[in-house]
Structures are given as structure tokens and as C-alpha cells.
């Protein structure tokens, strides 16, 4: 009888200790998860657009960028969605991020630019726990194009296309527009200035042949400019082509030689 009682007490003790260990492990796991969440909360920038500015400035002035990339990798996407509430905020944030991500990829591996198809299409950017590509940021989010089955792009894409984004986005090539920082408060004026600078720097009108020579960029994104008639209207507005003239257009080849750190 005493032996049976002893065995019962021993079994009870083992069960008690096992239960405590399980509870302790659960508690530790919960605390660990809570700690991780708190760390991620601390990583979230106080002002997300100013964060994109700081990221850009760190790259421009050769400061370390690992902390910025780590923060972007762990961003709370629900918070981000709540912060990007207007078209101007979205434009400023995503243009800054795109330009900075292009430069960061070149910094870490300049030779990666040699394979441009992979450079832009590979999903090698960690963003809030998702893997995305430069193409998805440019064409899906900033150009407001739907990507079937891509929840990230369809969640963050702009409400509508603003064709002037093409004069702000630097893909690393020599013919790209120079890189600048954009902020919501002045982005409309900045976009118009970027348009004027790019159009005048990359376009010329030959009155003898009635021919407009301009960047191949306009041909690639012709639909964004509402066709050739829209391109000619743009040239008229920026005083490249007379208002009463309709010229033929020759698109000049894009220079894809690498030109990093091309800042305004």
C-alpha cells in the first residue's frame, strides 16, 4: 500500500513538473513573440516619408544603410498602409524608395546591373516580410498597374498614374533622370520641374525636317503619355515644339551604361 502511494505521489510530481515546463515554455514563447513585436514596433519610423528621405541621404553621402534595409524588411504593412493615405504621400514615398533601392543594389553588387532582366525582375527586395522586385515597385505600384495575384502590389499601388513619374525614377542607366528626394508638400511642383528639365535635356526640334528627336523613354511608355499626340502636346507645353506644328518623331537610343550616384 505504501509503495502504491509512493508511486502515485511520484507520478503526480512528474506530471506537475511537466505541466510547469510546458507552461513556462509557452510563457517564454509568448514573451519572445511579444518582444519581437515590440522590437518591430520600435523599428517602425516615426514619419515614414522622412524615413525614405533619410534612406536616400544615407546612400548619397555613403553612410551605412544596413539599418534602413533591415527596417524596411520588417515594416508593419498595416501601419504603412495607414500612413500612405494620399496620392502625394504615396508618390513621394515610393519614388524615394525605388531610387534608393536601385542604388543600394548597385552598391552591394555593381556587376548585378549587367544582367538587367534579373536586376529589375528578381524578387530580392525584402519588404515587410514580403519579397518584391524593382519592376513590381515601378510598374505595379508607381504606374498603378494591376498584378494578378500579387496582393502586395494591389494593396499599395497608387490610385492613378501620373506620367511625370517617368522623369523622377532613376534605374541606374546613363540616360535616366537624375536622382532627387521628393516630399509630399512640394511634389506637384517638383514633378513639373522634373518634367521640364528632362524634356528639354533630351529633346530637340528640327524645323527644316519638321522632326522631333527625343528619348526612347517616351516610346516605351507611349501609353502613359496618351500616344504620340500626347507626347507632342508635352513638347509644346515645354516649349520644345511650336504650338502650331505637328512633327514626326524619332526616338533616340537609351544609353544603358551604368551611371550610379547620378544626383541633382
Helices and strands, with pairings:
Blueprint: H1 2-43, H2 48-60, H3 66-73, H4 77-83, H5 87-108, H6 116-121, E1 125-127, E2 130-132, H7 134-142, H8 151-156, H9 187-201, E3 204-206, E4 211-215, H10 217-220, H11 227-237, E5 248-252
Parallel strand pairs: 4-5
Antiparallel strand pairs: 1-2, 3-4
Word description of this protein:
With 264 residues, the protein is mainly alpha-helical. Among the domains are: 43 residues; 126 residues, no CATH class. 54% of the residues lie in helices and 7% in strands. A three-stranded mixed beta sheet has the order 3-4-5. A hairpin with a 4-residue loop joins strand 3 and strand 4. It is globular. The N and C termini lie far apart (91 Å). The N terminus is likely disordered.
Q: Report the portion of residues in β strands.
A: 5-15%
Question: How many angstroms does the end-to-end distance come to?
Answer: 91 Å
Overall number of strands: 5
Oligomer: single chain
**Class from helix and strand fractions:** mainly alpha
Strand order of the largest sheet: 3-4-5
Count the DSSP helices: 11
The overall average pLDDT, rounded, is: 88
Quick overview of this protein structure:
With 264 residues, the chain is mainly alpha-helical. It is built from eleven helices and five strands; from the N terminus they run H-H-H-H-H-H-E-E-H-H-H-E-E-H-H-E. The chain is 54% helix and 7% strand.
